[in-house]
Amino acid sequence: MMNRLFEKGRMKYIFALLVFAIGQLLVVTGYLNDYLFSTLTTLCINIILAVSLNLITGFTGQFSLGHAGFMSIGGYVCALISMRIPTVPGFLLGVLTGALAAAFVGFIVGLPTLRLKGDYLAIATLGMAEIIRIIFLNLKITNGAAGLNGIPQFVDWMWLSLFTFSSIILISNFIRSAHGRACVSIREDEIAAESIGIHATKYKVTAFVIGAFFAGIAGGLYASYFYFLRPTLFGFSRSIDILVIVVLGGIGSLSGSVIAAILLALISTYLQAFPELRMVFYAVALVVIMIVRPQGLMGSKELSLDLLKGFGRKRQRGGS
Amino acid sequence: MLEIRELEVYYGVIRALKKISLHVEKGEIVTLIGANGAGKTTALRTISGLLRPTSGSILLNGDDITQASPRERVRKGMSHVPEGRRMFPDMSVLENLELGAFLRRDKEAIEEDLMRVYERFPVLYERRKQMAGTLSGGEQQMLAIGRALMSRPEVLLLDEPSMGLAPLLVQEIFNMIRTINESGTTVLLVEQNANMALQIASRAYVLETGSIVLSGEAKELMESEEIKKAYLGGN
Amino acid sequence: SNAPSQPAASGDDAEEIKIGINYELSGGVATYGQANLEGIELAVEQINAAGGINGKKITLVTYDNKSDHAEATTLANRMMTQDGVLAAIGPATSGAFKATIPVAEKNQIPVVSGSATADDVTVDAQGLKEYAFRICFSDSYQGTAMADFALNTLNAKKAVIIMDSSSDYGKGLAKNFKEQFEKNGGTVVAEEAYVAKDTEFNAILTKVKGAEFDVIFIPGYYEEAGLIIKQARAQGIDAPVLGADGFDSPVLLELAGAEALNDVYFSNHYSSLDQDPLVLKFIEDFKAKYDKEPDAFNALGYDAMNFVADAVARAEKLDGTSIKDALASTENFAGVTGSFSIDENHNPVKSIVVIGLKNGVQDTISRTGE
Amino acid sequence: MGQFLQQIFNSISIGSIYALIALGYTMVYGIIRLINFAHASVYMLGAYIGYFAMTYFGLGFVPSILLAMLICMIVGVLIEKIAYKPLRNAARIAVLITAIGVSMFIEYGMMFLVKANVRSYPPMSGFLAKSFSVGAMTITAQQILILAVTIILMVVLQIVVKTTRTGKAMRAVSQDREAAELMGIDVNSTISFTFAIGSALAGAAGVLVGVYYNSINPLMGMLPGLKAFVAAVFGGIGLIPGAVLGGYFIGAVEVFVAGYGNSMYRDAVVFAILILVLILKPAGLLGKSGREKV
Amino acid sequence: MNKVLDVRKLSKSFGGLAAVTAVNLHLNKGELVGLIGPNGAGKTTCFNLLTGIYEPDKGSISLHRDGQEYSLEKRKPHEICRLGVGRTFQNIRLFRDLTVLDNVRTAMNRTVKYGLFSALFHIGSYHREERELIEKSMELLKIFELDGKALELAKNLPYGEQRHLEIARALATEPALLLLDEPAAGMNPAETAQLTRTIEWIRKRFDLTILLIEHDMSLVMKICERVYVLDYGMLIAEGTPEVIKNNPRVVKAYLGEVAYA
Ligand SMILES: Nc1ncnc2c1ncn2[C@@H]1O[C@H](COP(=O)(O)OP(=O)(O)OP(=O)(O)O)[C@@H](O)[C@H]1O
Ligand SMILES: Nc1ncnc2c1ncn2[C@@H]1O[C@H](COP(=O)(O)OP(=O)(O)OP(=O)(O)O)[C@@H](O)[C@H]1O
Ligand SMILES: [Mg+2]
Ligand SMILES: [Mg+2]
Fold it and tell me: Model-level pTM?
């Protein structure tokens, strides 16, 4: 019984290593050309964004439309640092500082606004992201509308997979901890959660800050793969794109977010061949998927966890 | 008046009602009792059209209404006090009551019925301007019953009307069900308070995990050892 | 077939000449991408109808970058590493175009933009982008020219700037105009901003109206400029209005109305008052194909395609490097947006015209520049 | 002083447009708790229908706006039937994503059909071409028209929702769909009716804005749509007077920030004020806040 | 001085409606006290005031625990819970989409010592503490015979078991004082009898003081040592079940003319 209830969850590390190794093999042998790699980079960035937004919106139940704002902070800070220190340590310093800056802003913004509920929170976060964007649009150091160019490129498969997997794993670890469960209970019923001693504001802000941190990492990766940043990249529609992935994958399912990000990347890549109707088909696909699976691809289930449980049960049965 | 034949209802793969049949004659009070999760609410929801059965049929006054919408059923004289009261929380008590008479156009008669409901539940009159969502549990229950009466139903489906009510009111509610019945409304009553239910009902059905396991005259059932032990608290 | 990054058949033995088209066909600035593409497609039709280049037909590999700069990068990668294009045209806006340049450099495939006007597109602090070319003016060139025009031709001393702060085009023009204007004795008394797709400008106009000034400079595109001029004139502001090539579209007239378009001057590549037969033929052909008047983006797209075709025809070999060299050595290319040569910074050297409107029609032109 | 009055008038005219679009958001939200992102697209559609009616069929203003309202009404009802109805029992956020999908479909579908370029409405004649000067201010007939339409619609809708049978049915459906069915309310047609009204409003707004600014494009719904959505929530989503108040509020803040502050930071200041106000009034300007009863 | 709860002059009104007016209550350690009264008398509102969901207009609430006195009237619900007040809700408020185990486990959060860092990296005492949490939760569930359904979603439990789970969840917060709001609502007499036994049993097992709202007199009269009666927000009577049963005011306002066993 105990084993069934309490999983150590080592599988995910093995899985991550495996994916990394396969990827590395493809890179070394040259099968992963620049085009595929840039598609892959976009995908991984989307995964990090979706997984971190899922923590805020899916698990903690706080409807946020401002994720692009956090991403942009991570991106700009990372770019500004790595342009001045164009070395790998500079890049890493940039990504981490960017993520911390995003987390800090998340804290400052989250503290007052997380009192708001539902759609009111949504427009407050949307407003926050717009304010951040307009500031970047008018700052000297970020070069306004033209944005930053010539950001040194450090993102390769190693860094990409390292950051992607650690984002997924850390967030999933968090969710499967007492702190994570506190967040989920707030989503389920805030009043009941408070009545069992959960400091709702504290946990909402915690989730918001962690989510912002990882969005910041995604921004940093973006800056240092695509060489450039501009305020227009972080508009309302990017936040919406991330939300779409989260809901499509399943609110409260990290593996769902990953799967949905992959699926949408596949659809979008496939549709590149139809430039005129690309977005129309994409929209249709979105609507159809939602109608067919309103709860999202995975609902609130997790892929890996269920597989593990399946294994566990089989082993038990075999043993007795 | 109301007849259910071989009704079968599924929630996904769960079979909540297993081919149940029952009937309620005009002017009767019939009660449906059973443990938590037996399927009582499911039965009522199917009868009033909120749920669709996979098979079986429902007849009202001889007409097959299995495929009818809830609206048509209301028009045909059915009224359902649902589990959990389900008032419209951001509307006033008065508006809730008016909605009960939604399909009626006879303004004056509606006004009369409104007065009758206020007479029955004076609290509702006191609170007529308050938002229904802020009423206490018991007040909400009264409102739910009052609202159902506003359609002048021929058949009234009641799902646990005594839940959460003060003892005095439980009494009153049951008395009222009796009066309502005496003034010509047929009643199908689902109750946890089996004691009281059996006292006012003429006949009863006992539902267990989706099947009817017992039925008969209410008085007889009240004497049954089995029923006493399972539903009446044993002592 | 699974050999890594081996571009599909290309080079001298290819049957056709593949040109990548990487444009904003949907999303926020789709207007400009679509307009460029119309010009390009017209050019390709004409070239192929005339037998192609040295007997080889041009085929376009067209992608929509959704006005997303990262997507532009990805698509540049796709066309260069998988589709084997010889050269790529687009994107339309400076930002998105810049996003494809590192890919071009890496794959040694030239990229050309018809409308990326920012100053640092082809050269920046790090030096010349060997594989990037453009055929339009830079912002500083136009901004300076319009400041000179304001000071010298209109004798203006005080100017108000109302700029599109959401595009680097608007900001770049504003900056250069201001520098030049103030260097030569003018003052900018107010700087106001709007963002692309705004339709309501009365608030800033009411504010501006309170100031004293001789001209208004509107660095931005016709979509908003048309409305600004209309609303300004309706408020009784009748100072001369200056703009740049972003004004050049028949839509400007439709939006602002003829009465509002008096005392409006903007810099451009060509004027319909030009009786250049090349221009006249282009306008005629364009009208025949699309049933509308061409605007600046149509013309620039048309020229960009012909510019590339011209270089392909002159190239020693059919590969990126040779075409790049051919592009770089273009001399006196006769385009509908003026004839030009490519300078050492991969910018066109062409003269600028300042067009004056009267009741919405082109009335005066003055030429400056090389 | 004249400038100040003029700015007040400016804020009223832009506010009217936000309010007009916000009304449709709030109507639909009121009944199915959905921020109907497709609303802004229907508004764009309305503008194009008006445009084609006027330029290709030579219809006048009134028939054009009626036609746009009619077609938008049909489109709105169809959208609900095809894309939202199957998700009646799904999470609200799932429907939101569908709405975003529908909105993209309409916008990009339109972009495919008519291209992305800006089109302009034909110049108006008659009353609609007039303008009046009051002191130092100039007021156009079109501004008066939009203001009047907004206020009249708000009043009419408020009366419909608060006093008529249908209005009561709408409110009942929004609060408890099942209970509404038990009252004999036809939930489907009530929802359809709401979409019909909301979409007709969008269509009308599209034509009015087309006439007013004479500039339309397939993405014209995005920015005002976003602002109107913000206005609707800000006023207290689901509340008709809230939508109008929110619209005017946002319009006024925008105009006064641009007119007396720094127009570079216009939208940033608008949002900052919005967030501050929400922190003080967490359920919007007119919304009732307070903890739910437990 | 073995008082656990001392409420003085507690008042709360909503708009013009005085829901609770100058109510005094006190509970001694280990007592099981009933709070009854007609519908809308203000019982649930009292609970909401005690647990910080509403802030009182007037009056004081003090909790005594481990020789300390804490005043509750300005505190937030989660602080009050941490001081040792647990509750259930009149309309069940479980975490419906969480498992039975998680419902209880989440309520044990305050015993968790590992920090955010351990939570993110699953290091430090994470594994040990998590294991302990599960063990403790399962023990608690066993008491309510819910251990077999630990991995079911709360919303899939039958009603009666949901009520039990809610009590288990409240107990998981290790309260000294437990507030139960109509625990027997929606149960049939047999189930109510079972619940009555459970309540008595947990009181002993966890050394609890219990305040209980209930309309089912068979339960109240059987297990409550004292009963408070509210009417129109005011306390109209207080005493042993015997006394209350025969108080004419209570009979008139609340009980009606029936004899209760
Ligand atoms: N929406 C639903 N989805 C899945 N299962 C359901 C649903 N509603 C009810 N059930 C299940 O169907 C069975 C019958 O439920 P029902 O609500 O009809 O019982 P009941 O007799 O009214 O019980 P109670 O006395 O608790 O009200 C139960 O096992 C319940 O868990
Ligand atoms: N948030 C609120 N807003 C307005 N009125 C309220 C609110 N909460 C409670 N009330 C009112 O306060 C009174 C007391 O309500 P309360 O829920 O405390 O009653 P109760 O004694 O628990 O009744 P019941 O036994 O029916 O549950 C009721 O009249 C109710 O309408
Ligand atoms: Mg039931
Ligand atoms: Mg209560």
Answer: 0.92
